[in-house]
Amino acid sequence: MRRALALLTLLGSAAQAADIDDVLNALKRARTLAARGQAEVTVLFPPREMPTRRAAALPALTVRPALVQQNFAVTRLGAAAVAGRPAVLFELIPKVGQAARWRLWVDEVWKVPLAFEERSAGGDLARRAVFTKVGATLTRQALAQPPLPGGLADALARALPGLRLPPGFVPSGIGARPAGREVTLTDGLNTLTLVVARRNVKAAPGVASRRVGGAYVWLVGNLPHNELNAALAGIRRADQAPLGTF
After folding, report:
1. In this structure, what DSSP letter does residue 242 have?
2. Which of 215, 232, 214 is nearest to 223 (CA)?
3. CA dihedral 190, 195, 200, 205 (to 10 degrees)
4. Using one digit for the tens of pLDDT, what is the confidence trace for 69-100?
5. 216, 197 in Cβ contact below 8 A?
6. Long-range CB contacts (< 8 A, 24+ apart) of 216-220?
7. Largest Cα–Cα distance in the chain?
8. Of 54, 30, 34, 27, which Cα lies nearest the Cα of 42?
9. Contact in structure between 196 and 181 (CB atoms under 8 Å)
């Protein structure tokens, strides 16, 4: 019995590893090859007046494969059809924390995504993109994937001592805005925006803010409000100077 259970565990681990490999290979392949045709794109978070639009291709996803492998459990849910083409449906669920979960439909032959869906930890739809028609061949493209900025995590810790990044998230980019500095955080698939500014931000779903001395710190993204607030709760001071070298 023990030997049978060990064998089942080993087979299950091997299957999950194969599922992760299939998803990562599809996401990497999508950097250079993409389907084209007619797609329907719906964005419900952040809210907008016209959430659904038509497009010739799926929106590009900013993916960090190593972080996806580290932070997500991947499961093959079975066969599906998208725009008349055979596909395989995968589900990606965060291993820790309450970040958004994803579903990805991968073409069986082309090995590129034909649809994706993002849902909050509570199950609410945030984003969906799906082909309704596709062309006969793939199109070449070149999506850049810059490396994670070296030293940014340490600079952020000096700028905002006491900041507690949500589980799995790391700094992935930085930019300037009129009111202050903006740092992008990623867990491999999901993105949060951290802003240090002179002014506060209007309260809204997916937005938390805290006054620290003479500055305000905002955290924006598809996380439960308590998670956003918890990330900011321990900040002791806000100093944009350490972020000025990026």
Report:
1. G
2. 232
3. 0
4. 999 999 999 999 999 999 999 999 999 999 99
5. yes
6. 217/160, 217/163, 218/193, 218/194, 219/192, 219/193, 219/194, 219/195, 220/192, 220/193, 220/194, 220/195
7. 65
8. 54
9. yes
pLDDT for the residue 11: 44
Higher local confidence (pLDDT), 5 or 127: 127
Read off the pLDDT of each residue in 217-239 and give the average, rounded to a whole number. 96
Residues 120-131 as b/e (b if ≥16 CB within 10 A, e otherwise) read: bbeeeebbbbbb
Cα 223 to Cα 27, 93, 118, 188, distances in angstroms:
23, 14, 12, 15
| 231 vs 165: CA distance, rounded Å | 6
- Residues for the chain: how many in total? 246
198 is written with which tokens? 């002179």
- Using alpha carbons, select from 183, 186, 222 the residue that is nearest to residue 205: 222
The CA distance from 149 to 190, in Å, is 18
CA-based radius of gyration for the chain:
20
**Tokens found for residue 4:** 């049978």
Tokens at residue 95, please? 């291993």
Q: What single letter denotes the amino acid at residue 120?
A: S
Look up residue 143 and give its amino acid: L
